[in-house]
């Protein structure tokens, strides 16, 4: 996408101006989405974006800018503007750029650039819509969306790196609304994968429509959730969002380097119950949060964050590594060329244990089964969180008894890690998008069901 001779000339110019490190991030991004509302196709959107991000290091200072031009003089002009305050002319040239190669672990048979497969996508959404409405007459609305995108990247830096990759993403979302008089409730699922449109073969549109309709119906006639501190069993899959938000961000050098994380000085210490083992893994084949290389050009890896309750690693980008002394983990990520990369999660999850759901339920006299988690808010630095439960049930004397609505879980990441006493064997992953200072990136959360011995539950009662 960018002539290597142009890239080297710009990098040499950055070093001449005094930069300790220079990097070019080139991106061509193509996207397509189709949305169905009220049984009709509402929107079909497509777009192409191209740009080049320029990042310079002056010691621990990071300067970043971008342009849509591949012209050498324009790239040098942006570089000069960035370096203006720190300019210290020196005769330094980068070494020769060498094209790095790697093994692509992630197959793609139906990329967006070859065919948008629009007819098949529309048929998929119509089937999901029909299945949701057929589930119950009280399903008043169904909204479905299919998004597919293709991101080509190329990275050059002053250490001689030249590497590129093409990334394929497909995600399907379904939202059902149930209504009874003035009462409304919703059901939502949004599976995704790091692959092309062939992902649809793993998602049954009828089952997807039925699942979100059933979720909506369960809550429509549910009782209000009781409040107070009690044991809670958090379901598998998207239940991992609590670890991601309340703990995962605290293990990124984005916060660790600034000592804005309660874990910044806890390496090697016990921070969780011994049953907790947590991983951030960018290598999982075709998973939504996977990558071959990160956005700094480093091959991704599997990073063991917590082992038997002890903190064993952070997620580290280049600058985070320079500031903390920890080795980079292939975790430097960004939304696009408009953002400088920082340490970010990929596929982040608590590893499965050996307990069954029945084992966990048996020890609960009165508590909550949070089968499916929803969204929430987290206080950066402390991990204090407030998460809504999308689908919840009351547990009495070891049995699930009735559905509940308006359930909220309130605690802190460090506290909840120590309250986990059992981890299940029903491991699952779920796709999501994660926002931070380097924009919004695809991430996967996950876990088996797990038992939290004591957590504050907010509810309608």
From TrEMBL:
Question: What are the Metalloprotease TldD/E central domain coordinates in residue numbering?
Answer: 115-220
Q: Which key words tag this protein in UniProt?
A: Hydrolase, Metalloprotease, Protease
Q: Where is the Metalloprotease TldD/E C-terminal domain?
A: 227-459
Reading the lineage from the top rank, the first entry is: Bacteria
| Record has Protease as a keyword | yes
What organism is recorded for this protein? Photobacterium leiognathi
Keyword field contains Protease: yes
What does the similarity note say?
Belongs to the peptidase U62 family.
Please list the residue ranges annotated as the Metalloprotease TldD/E N-terminal domain: 22-78
Question: What protein name is recorded for this chain?
Answer: TldD/PmbA family protein
